[in-house]
Amino acid sequence: MPVDSLVNQVNSEFDFAQVRDVYLQGNDLAQRFAALRAGESFCIGETKFASGLNFLSAWLLFEHVAPQGASLDFFSIENTPSTHAELAISQWPELRVQANALQTNWLRRVPGWNRWSFAGGRVRLTLIMSDVVAALPQLSASCVDAWFLDISVLEKSHDKEGVNVCENIIRASRVGATLAMPSNTPQLAEQLQQAGFEVELLQDAEPQQKMLRGSLNQRVSSRANSMPRSALLIGAGIAGCAAAYALAQRGIRVTLVDRAPQLASGASGNSRGILHARFGAGDNPLHRFVLAAYGHVLGLLDAVLAVDGVLRSECGLLQLACKEVESKRIARLAQQDWPAHVLQFVDAGQASRRAGMAMRYGGLWFPAGGWVIPASLCEALVDNELITQRLGHEIDELEKVGATWRVSGHDAQGETWDADADIVVVCCAHAAKQLAQFTHFPLIPVRGQITELSETMASKTMQSVVCGDGYCAPAVNGVHVMGATHAFDDKSIEVREADHAENLAKLAEYAPALFQSLNSCDTAGRHSREGGNLVENTNPRSGQSVDSDALRVDSLTNWIPAFAGMTQEVTGRASIRCSAPSSMPLVGLVQQGLYCSLAHGTRGLLTAGISGEILAAQICGELPPLPINILAELNPLARIRNKS
Ligand SMILES: Cc1cc2nc3c(=O)[nH]c(=O)nc-3n(C[C@H](O)[C@H](O)[C@H](O)COP(=O)(O)OP(=O)(O)OC[C@H]3O[C@@H](n4cnc5c(N)ncnc54)[C@H](O)[C@@H]3O)c2cc1C
């Protein structure tokens, strides 16, 4: 029978019982899941996601038989994802809980790599929206324990590229890996045998259950249980809190240390931050990373911080084509198909309707974009009994002592202290350079300031975040937030009038009607014209930042004559970002037992979550959430070697 019709037959006739008989039993998953120990992860690789039935079935079995503390990684490759409605849902009541969770995340999927966690982190899905031939070489080596193969993938081994399919399956397999697929075609068995699998054709099976199974080597896979029991994280900004969350999900005890007396006191302490996924077309690793980070953070936010319009809003975000370079980027993106839930292309009229006020430019519309209060996100991430906060403690030194790490420092009273942990993760932004192991890291401090301005009756109609050469968010509690300035190698945290003026002047360029709406005597927000008092700081976060006293906006008339005569108040906050030359963060192993998540630059809210997941996967020897070409760009050791 030609391969095509075989595939069709399998796809149309495959059901829950057959998934169980072919894939689950064919790989002996019940026994292998049950034999796992706490701290171990088992990885299944699949070459066609289709309705997600195989994933959901494996998840259900895992929950029933695997011991507490073990986790399941399931990755699947799919070039043409099913619609929301096509996902395996209520057809199988046994799977309803799992299917509902998958459906929720489905609306967060982005082209490329997606990583979602389920069941409190016990089950992870890495969904790769890509061609299988392109995706397989990007898997990390030696990570897969069992394969759910689809006939169509092996069909590709008939051509030149197809040879790589089998080679890449072998490369990604752990010793002892098994495979199963619905087929009894001798040619397929031969191909897999040539690649190195010992293969068995089950000839006597029912016609609809004919299958092929194999194993790479009967020796039991060597699963060194390398998971650390304790971790000490330095820095309780968004990078440290996200890493703490990912480690605690794996059952690791975390001590989170910060020199400031509260979480999110550095760059992560702004009153609001936006989810700004700015990426281009093509295969640029930075852009692919930003896209994957965006998909990931939406799922992470759904898990820890509900959309409530107070701590988090999914009001949508516009990226305006306000400059030639932006118009060109958007035109290149328009040459690709994008799921409407990720981004849409809008003209000025459509942009105006989404923004709730006149926009001079069209551009990109991100329906799931919005803003979040970073400190609230940090608090939600570390709300876990495995995470102990040690605030008001500054780390001065790290030292490897035998198999563990010792950190020493001082508290706010100047008392010295130290602590030991199996691993240390450094997340303290540019201050990392003060630690001996990081002095040579290419970390660049970049000062930035946000501006907060009262809502007016005219600006009240604003509905979404608007980005051009800066950003402005709709008002909450009567206050808009706009940002942000950039000053390289400037570590001053004073709030400057000139920076407020710069933020406002940029706004006047990319969204003139919005700027105009703010220049009104008709204030609706907390900075009322009558009040005249200095604004009480609603989000005072100390540390490496300064929240300003309120200025009257007419004090900016040296820079912006349009504000002459206005008594509205303007506040702001300055802090220091940490950047690195390629704009990619530095995430991963530095020395044995020492890791970092640094240089999140202008988009830490987007990139810290997936970076925590990368670290946790590396620390626990699990499947990484991203392809090897992106991981290579994030790798601190490679970056130090290449001085980038
Ligand atoms: C003005 C401005 C606006 C921004 N707007 C956005 C936005 O809208 N969206 C977005 O995604 N990103 C935005 N960013 C970027 C984002 O804020 C950063 O990328 C992110 O906060 C970095 O997080 P972090 O945890 O790496 O660093 P930080 O938040 O700076 O955290 C580092 C922590 O380490 C602690 N620390 C330092 N040294 C030590 C030590 N020796 N011992 C103990 N603790 C130590 C510090 O106290 C600090 O709490 C903005 C940045 C700025 C400055």
How would the blueprint of this fold be written?
Blueprint: H1 3-13, H2 16-26, H3 29-34, E1 41-46, H4 53-65, E2 71-77, H5 96-106, E3 112-118, E4 123-129, H6 132-135, E5 144-148, H7 151-155, H8 160-172, E6 173-181, H9 186-195, E7 198-202, E8 211-215, E9 230-234, H10 238-249, E10 253-258, E11 273-274, H11 285-304, E12 312-313, E13 317-320, H12 324-333, E14 344-346, H13 348-355, E15 363-366, E16 371-372, H14 374-381, E17 387-391, E18 393-401, E19 404-411, E20 416-421, E21 423-426, E22 444-454, E23 465-468, E24 470-476, E25 479-483, E26 487-488, H15 497-510, H16 512-518, E27 545-547, E28 551-552, E29 569-579, E30 586-591, E31 594-598, H17 604-620, H18 628-634, H19 636-642
Parallel strand pairs: 1-2, 1-5, 2-4, 5-6, 9-10, 9-21, 10-17, 13-23, 21-31
Antiparallel strand pairs: 3-4, 6-8, 7-8, 11-16, 12-16, 13-15, 14-15, 18-19, 19-20, 22-25, 22-26, 22-29, 23-24, 24-25, 27-29, 28-29, 30-31
Helix pairs in contact: 2-4, 10-14, 10-17, 11-17, 15-16
Bound molecules: flavin-adenine dinucleotide (FAD).
Flavin-adenine dinucleotide is lined by residues 234-240, 257-260, 265-268, 270, 273-274, 276, 394-395, 427-429, 431, 448-450, 483-484, 543, 575, 577-578, 600-606.
